[in-house]
Predict the 3D structure of the following.
Amino acid sequence: MEIPAQYIKNLYKTLLVFLVVLSLFFAVKFLAELKSYGRMGNSETNTITLSGHGEVTAVPDIANVYFTIRKTAKTGKEAQTSVAVIEKKALDFLETKGVDEKDIKTENASVYPKYDYVRKLCPQTEIGGVVSPAYDCGGKQVLSGYEASESITVKIRNTDDAGTIMQGLGTTGVSNLSGPNFSIDDEDALKAEARKKAIDNAKEKAKVLAEDLGVSLGRIADFSEEGNYYPIMYGKTAMMDSAVSSVLAPAELPKGENTISSDITITYEIK
């Protein structure tokens, strides 16, 4: 069956129109992309960059206390046993103060040998009535015992009890004690609030600057953030070791405030 010439002619026309439309589509898309690239590449004249700062303050709701138990003995097992005795006293005391087991964390535990250097003196000689000085003829390290230690962090959720708890821990025989470090248990909400304030601050600056320049703000081309956390803690950290355990932390400790801040930078395209 022979295809009519007019049908073939119309088919070619339709195909030609389709190809022209398709070519125009890609040409327009290419020019739009090229134009966009040109705007982004010329940040000095087509973009403005503003910074914003935001911060929030809050009273700390937890206090962290740190202590170490350190004991020496002839054997490693004896040293560990001595540490365990003191640890039990400390943990029993914390339990009486309502500190949850999940808020007590062992940060580090170790046992290692201790050595003393024993000198071996060379025989002295006398020449012409002059006695030679004593020299070390090769001393050696001699095992003197073992030291066991354990470091523990305690999170105190009732911050008003921080001073009392430190006083009690100081009587259990811990080797040293430091803190409290007042902080905020869940900072995410405060960080988000500080970030929003920083963004609002930058937006307001951008709006004013755009009006002054006589331009319009376009889309956001870039964004970055730097967050900072400034704890305002008790000014004098209470610290003690076994030799000065009678110097106890005060029962009431001022908590002050903690400041969480956010610094952001926003780059706008301008039109």
User: Anything to note?
Assistant: The beta strands are 47-58, 62-73, 104-118, 126-127, 130-131, 140-156, 176-183, 217-231, 240-241, 258-270. The first strand starts at residue 47 and ends at 58. The two ends are 63 Å apart (CA to CA).
